[in-house]
Backbone:
């Protein structure tokens, strides 16, 4: 049994809306779906994310539409239903400004699951999208405790961990941890467009890591950035100022200033919370040559599991000249030698 008011109406059946429906159906929660895009709605219902909404009372409305439409859909839900209302939008203050004088605003508390993909649409959805991920719950000054509690229960049932923030705190946080990294990834990826083929042939896992999120939907991201423009612009200004220092250090050969900037980057990576929200622990990478044949990756994972060493992260880089891949297994630095020895005994070609 859950305390979530049912049925849950999910408005919008893109990546997040469909994933949420699947996550709730996993818990046997009754889910109804609504979307102007009938093809998306048909796909989401076909995947088992819920049934098409045909009217009637609902307990909770979750608005999962693009940023430009969040305010209007939240307002519609407050007008047309007596339900608690939330959203999963990536910016909280902009839609709230359009709702502040509405009757029933106490039934609304915002939310934002910190999960997603560079892919979009219901076919990219998965019921495990939110498992173990933070879900920011952002009640405003007039949100009732009951509305906030309903949103927190929604997040827990979806598999996420709740982080309560004010809307203003949320927008500052995502500007730093999501919106700015996305824009900087875009700038780096843009330097690859039109690059000579022999330059691109040198691409490794590093450039793939830095540019992966740049493949996100430009139409969606221009809405996100525009809605959070003040916070994003402030951070971009800071980066611009530091970039000027970096350019000067590179141009003049000022190694001291260059090292300061590089060390600040190391400090930033160490500030990111580690597993289970604890402090980040030192890790190292173990590299394994992997034949590009069916079943080889499964065999590697089985052998790594038999070593008794927990794998913290995995990256795969493909060799464009051979039918080989290079798998990077990230492990606690105190367990790397154990993994190397164990895999070597099983015939794997490994190195650090």
Residues:
């Amino acid at each position: 049994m859950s305390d979530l008011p049912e049925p849950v109406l999910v408005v919008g059946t893109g990546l997040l809306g469909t994933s949420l429906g699947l996550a709730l159906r996993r818990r046997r929660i009754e889910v109804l779906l609504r979307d102007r895009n009938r093809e998306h709605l048909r796909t989401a219902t076909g995947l088992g994310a819920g049934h098409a909404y045909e009217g009637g009372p609902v307990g909770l409305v979750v608005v999962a539409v693009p940023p430009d439409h969040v305010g209007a859909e939240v307002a519609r839900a407050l007008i047309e239903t007596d339900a608690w209302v939330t959203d999963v939008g990536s910016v909280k203050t902009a839609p709230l400004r359009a709702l502040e004088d509405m009757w029933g605003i106490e039934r609304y508390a915002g939310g934002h699951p910190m999960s997603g993909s560079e892919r979009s649409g219901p076919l990219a959805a998965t019921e495990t999208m939110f498992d173990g991920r933070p879900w920011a719950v952002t009640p405003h000054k007039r949100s009732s405790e009951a509305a906030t509690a309903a949103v927190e229960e929604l997040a827990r049932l979806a598999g996420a961990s709740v982080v309560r923030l004010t809307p203003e705190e949320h927008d500052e946080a995502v500007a730093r941890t999501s919106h700015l990294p996305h824009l900087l990834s875009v700038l780096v990826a843009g330097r690859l467009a039109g690059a000579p083929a022999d330059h691109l042939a040198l691409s490794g896992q590093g450039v793939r890591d830095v540019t992966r999120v740049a493949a996100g939907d430009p139409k969606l991201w221009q809405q996100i950035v525009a809605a959070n423009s003040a916070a994003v612009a402030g951070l971009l200004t800071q980066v611009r100022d530091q970039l000027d220092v970096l350019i000067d250090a590179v141009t003049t050969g000022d190694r001291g200033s260059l090292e300061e900037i590089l060390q600040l980057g190391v400090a930033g990576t160490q500030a990111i919370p580690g597993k289970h929200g604890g402090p980040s622990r030192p890790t190292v990478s173990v590299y394994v040559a992997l034949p590009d044949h069916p079943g080889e990756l499964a065999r590697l994972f089985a052998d790594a599991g038999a070593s008794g060493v927990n794998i913290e992260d995995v990256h795969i880089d493909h060799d464009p000249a051979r039918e080989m891949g290079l798998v990077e297994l990230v492990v606690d630095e105190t367990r790397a030698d154990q993994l190397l020895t164990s895999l070597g005994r099983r015939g794997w070609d490994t190195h650090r």
About this structure: The chain has three domains: 8-165, 172-271, 283-351. The mean pLDDT is 92.
